[in-house]
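Exam revision sheet. Question 4 asks you to relate a sequence to its structure. Input first:
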Amino acid sequence: MSTAMTTTASTLPAPTAAEPPADRGAGSRPARGGPGAEKPSLVATGVLVLGALYCLIPIVWVLIAASKSADELFSTFTLAPSTHLLQNVQDLFAYRDGLFLRWAGNTVLYAIGGALVSTVVSAAAGYGLALFDFRGKKLFFNVILAGVLVPAVILAVPQYLLFAQAGLANTYWAVFLPSILNPYGIYLARIYAGASIPREMIEAARTDGAGELRIFARFAVPMMLPGLVTVFLFQFVGIWNNYMLPYIMLGDDSLFPITVGLSTLMNQGASQPAMYTTVITGALVSILPLIALFLLLQRYWQSDLTGGAVKG
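Answer key, structure tokens:
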């Protein structure tokens, strides 16, 4: 046996230098940074940079303008900063015994409450349209798609007439209730539910005796969570920036959101130029919660994209 092993070992080829890896086919991508790696297009990069600057320049202008006094706002170079930002913020919060804080609280109430309830309604409607079969389903979905195409401005006056007859005009409900039903949110939830929830899992849960409400809350909602975050953000930003509906519905300035409140201050700028600085500072303060919300919830999008890549 030892002789046979010696003979076999002597017939093996001598070790050679490491051979290059075999060709992985024409469709394989070259290693990142290698000689065959694709280089970023300068044109595409330039377009992206210009787009980023186009979006950031207004924010930079608001930040710089909010740091100026009322005299400096129109007498100095546009992009030249000053040192009055803290004083302008104090003046903003002190205006009429903190009326801006009242407007901010109203805006938070309208946006968070309306976006949360709207997301729940959109999730339930999208889940039902995606996973249930019933008569008139296609017609109902087409009506929702038609609702996406209708501008909200067209509905503002009819909604005011309806709320006025119901005695709800000039109340919180006049702004809160119309924001609950969001056709675009229902459409997104329906698309995401159909793509993320397997019917086999729903059938298995029904076989185990789970009720429809429990299936929706315990299984469907967690699977739809990244898509529902998107629905929530869209609706939150839409309500936060909404101007026409509260402008028509509300007459008491204690119920105003930030958009309508700053608009009233802007109208006073013709007779009181100092109000322009207050309006600009209020605009700066009003966008900070939106930036914080996007930074806080973006991880849900990133985890969803990563999960999709792994599943693919």
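Marking note for examiners. The longest helix spans residues 274-311.
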